[in-house]
Amino acid sequence: MRVVTTYVLVTGANSGLGFTTCCRLIDEFLDTRPGHESITLILTTRDSRKGDSTVSRLQKRADKLPKSKRQDGTTRVSYKSEIVALDSLLSVKRLSKKLLAELPKLDVVILNAGCGGWTGVDYWMATQQSMKGFVQSVTWPAFKLANIGVVTKPQLPNTSTQGTTNTALGEVFCINVFGHYLLSHNLAPLLSKAHHPSGNRGRIIWLSSIETEAVIDAFSIDDIQGLASPTPYEISKRLGDVLALTSSLPATKPWVDSFLLAPKSVPTPSGEEGIPTTESKPGMYVTHPGICSTDILPVHWILNLFKLLTFYIARWLGSPWHTIDAYKGACAPVWVALSPQAQLDSIEAKEGPGKWGSSTDIWGNERVRRTEVGGWGWGGIVGEEVQRGGRISGAKALTREAREEFEVLGRECWRRMEGLREEWEERLDGLD
Ligand SMILES: NC(=O)c1ccc[n+]([C@@H]2O[C@H](COP(=O)([O-])OP(=O)(O)OC[C@H]3O[C@@H](n4cnc5c(N)ncnc54)[C@H](OP(=O)(O)O)[C@@H]3O)[C@@H](O)[C@H]2O)c1
């Protein structure tokens, strides 16, 4: 029988959710796919030391799999370690070029790498917020502190001809959204070649956050980089939600099509261009891991223990979103990555495109759960059933007006992101 290989790229694979996503991809792939199928994980990290250590940790872990799976793990799983710094568009361009030249196709891209941009915690505000509502305060915290207006290093090498165009981008925006956006655009020709006997199409999967619900009113279309905002992280994740959830609407089609067009700046080896057909068009999905204990918000180890305790208390008090363990947090992105296309399509046809979250019950048993998004509800369907639990206080059932505004917002976000992409591609033209 012909070997079928699934190629999955995971950014930020060396730590936290990136690493557990790789572990879970391997486990679930070996559990669910037949023996003639294999998986190649393309792991991106910021340097080769981190990349080598990630591959070696994954291999050691595979050696400890139950005997029945160990043999499978060594023959059916392979790794390709790559380097990218998402705050550098030139680094994104270099990786794109390399992958376009080396890979035959790409089935899934999991846009996991991320940066919080936080500088600390306002403990006084944290105490006040938790006294008003403990579970709400540890699910949608309003006490994380971030500097306003932090930008990346200049994107272009300083040459006299580029002088005034050598501007920078919002740092959190560039790492969490724009670097990934450009990478996905550049890799669209490989994603369009994704093919699987079961009809799976290419998938671009954003890693969002439950916390976006706290900033829906603070999100401004005139500041999509969050440069004027004290919550640039949450703004960046809200942008990812809006882009993904509106990506299949007719209103965004012109920009989504141009996004999925083979890139001019990074020519494909065969030089092909053109909008993918419906059968080959990659889908865009948004997921989130719930709330996990990782290093994304670095705190002293004693405070870390305290944080962990508050997470468990929140879960025992009924929070579905405190997945805590990053392996459990990886359940939603891995489910979206490996589910049969027919299953995803039929759910979306019935319930609308949704934000897929990792959640647990009080005992810590994980499952994938749709998540409410301000202005979109659970699936963008006015009159849909309002689900109980796991909602931010003050959440409202979806109205026709809110749904229409969300669509307008989506179109505007897509238009501006495509504008920004074209602007930067021009600036990067001829640079390697
Ligand atoms: N933890 C949670 O509860 C939670 C909740 C919601 C969403 N998320 C999302 O989950 C994703 C993973 O977060 P995590 O919690 O696993 O945090 P983490 O352990 O800090 O991992 C972040 C990853 O992103 C990489 N990264 C950071 N800046 C980068 C850059 N400029 N270029 C390339 N890679 C970069 C890091 O690489 P280095 O190791 O080299 O820094 C690391 O691999 C993020 O998108 C985050 O927003 C997490």
From TrEMBL:
Source species, domain of life: Eukaryota
GO cellular component: endoplasmic reticulum membrane; lipid droplet; mitochondrial outer membrane
Keyword Oxidoreductase: yes
Compositional bias of kind Basic and acidic residues: 60-73
GO molecular function, one term: 3-beta-hydroxysteroid 3-dehydrogenase (NADP+) activity
Signal peptide: none
Keywords: Lipid biosynthesis, Lipid metabolism, NADP, Oxidoreductase, Steroid biosynthesis
Gene3D superfamilies assigned to the protein according to its UniProt record, in alphabetical order: NAD(P)-binding Rossmann-like Domain (3.40.50.720)
Spans annotated as Disordered: 52-73
Keyword Lipid biosynthesis included in the entry's annotation: yes
Gene Ontology annotations of biological process type: ergosterol biosynthetic process
UniProt cross-references to PANTHER family, sorted A to Z: 3-KETO-STEROID REDUCTASE ERG27 (PTHR43647:SF1), DEHYDROGENASE (PTHR43647)
Recorded family membership: Belongs to the short-chain dehydrogenases/reductases (SDR) family. ERG27 subfamily.
Protein name listed in UniProt: 3-keto-steroid reductase
Organism annotation: Glutinoglossum americanum
